[in-house]
Predict the structure.
Amino acid sequence: MSSSPVEAQRVRRNGKLEACEPCRKSKLRCDHAHPVCGRCRLRNTASRCVYHPAPLTRPRDTIHRWHVTTAQLPGPRPLPTAPIPSPDSRNSPRTSTTTTTPDASHSTNSRSRKTPENQAHNPGFLGPSSFSAAFDGDQVMSGDDPNTRWPGYSDASAPMTPAVTVYDAARVKLGGQMLALLPEFSFVEEMIERYFQLSTVVIIPLQAIKVTIQTLRSIHKSRLSTEARREELAEYLFRQSDKPIQTNPSMTPEEFYGLFTGENLRWEIIGVLFALIGCSTMTHPSLLSLLKDSRVDTNWTSFTEDMLLASNVCISFCQDSFNDLLLWMMHSNLTLLTMHRGESSHAVWRRLSDLASTIFGIGYHQENRVTDQAPTFLIELRKRSFAGAYAADISIATFLGRPPRIADHYASTSLPLDLPNEILMVNHELLDDAISKLDPQGWNTDNAIHRATFLRARTMISKVREEVLHLYLGNPIPDLEAQVHKVLQKADQVWNSVPPFVRYSESYWDSGIAAHKIYMLLQLHLEHLYSKVLLYRLIVKYGGGAGGTDLLNATCRDIVSGVLVLYRERDRLLSHARDFPWVILYYGLPCAAILAIELRRQQRGQSNSAPLPRAHSIRDLTLFTSNLESISRSGDGNSPLCAHAYRALGQILDELLEERTGLNQAQTQGQAEPSNVELGPSAVNSAMGMGGIMPQISGLAGGAGPGQDGTFDLSADGLMNSENFLDGLIDMNWDLSDWTMTL
């Protein structure tokens, strides 16, 4: 029986299936899956998973591999139909196109191919301590002549693309496969618009995405209908992505969009689109069923994985470029990664590193680099890119207990102005008028809550948090207590410096303010309070006395109450439900642990602090733990962590109730209080009407449960105070399914 064309292509002359290049070179077994094998998918190296048609032959002058020098890069080959139209030909800058065949293109470039010794190389941003700094002020080395100027020398618009670009047939084929994953565009536009309305972290102007979708819709039938046409478009995108994006101070938003849409469509904006589609699907998974596209898997989990894969591949296509679009793509990809895999995923940590490296490579940590050759709206977009990356870096570094990548000590980029996105992307006159109405610090005077309002305040709080992390993660400080009080004072000063309308109040829920805007303010409130919790922990740890413990307990109670508000108002915050696992783990869990341990210490007579209201505290902790349990079954990227936390906190609550019950029974029956308690049904489950749930939850993360016999090991030694318990949480291996705690 004859094999199919696909099978024939995958079988080598020796009768064996061809392996991808990474597996072949590493001499590892390949499962031969297309377009990406299982091993490369697991290693998150999809961009390198290519199947070479003849891996042991030398490359000849064929169309399979073209070497094109950037300096002599010809115009894009005309596609079989009309050139890709610009959505607005009057506002989109056009580039001339030159018709070249593949063979002619290769012939031309093979004669001009540069050797490694004489390749032009641009390292990106070079700071004042770099190897080129000695030539600062020299008219030759710092002049306008590109033949003598250092590559990357103080010019944000300088081309930052590789001098030699390799067009590989397999790479073009992979690009075509990624384009095949694009869903129907009217559906995409609706999903993304809903996401933009409510997202607190998106930094990209919506109009840029709309123009991109308009471009793709106009070429959908003619360029994406067949594999060959998709590969033609992929090759076109590679050529366009090799061109530098050059801006000027007088550029309008429409002209800026024209640099990466219409006939100038690039891989970077395609990658942004993939990531935003994934984020939109995670936010509104039920809407995916409305998609009428037979090519797309309407299972939201599989669909989101496809969008994440495509976004990752697009990033790999643009690794050597430095521009604003690359930052947008990496930031959007990071957001999708955190939603899909959770903040504890190492893939998130790696992508955060890539984002920080790109920030420094472009130089956007320096104010003069941000403002160089840029109009006002683009300066503000760059400031938002930096602020968003910095705040994300500080938050995830805090969550994982690791040093942040981006340090404010080395950054001079100022805060973005408190302007709504709609005003930011209008003409220069209206934008200048809006800026003139801001207060001297850059806040709006209308008491309006914009996305920029949230980003400004979050960045200010993150700068304080960076100092807190230095106290925790840096080398020992001789005058630690004095430094802690200094940072505490600064935290309060920063919080009091933001306008009153930015400071959260629970009364806002009855004020008519949109729920998603109140949610922004609640996040800022929790972020500020959690910095103080971390500082109070240091005071307690190093002998601050009962006063420090009282302040710690009071602040923890405020945070737990704030987290529970989300669940009280969950019907109004359905579109933010994906944020709840992060909020409950990042802010709520450490504070709930501190309160639970303090209740236990007070019950045993081991605490000198002010008594906590026992009934109220146990009720709040029971509700908190119940919410952990519900999240652990949600399928969110943080679900395994919530399952672990549910079991750990449930043990303490069970002990609080069981120990008192055992003490009462011992006093009644004249027996000694037991030192070890083998728990039956969870007290949390019993209080919430969910008896018997605990044994089922214990295996959610993939293991058999807390112990071999399904019981918890509870001894009187071990975690005797909240500090030890919290240290145990920080040092815990979050990937283990068996989380047995000794108390």
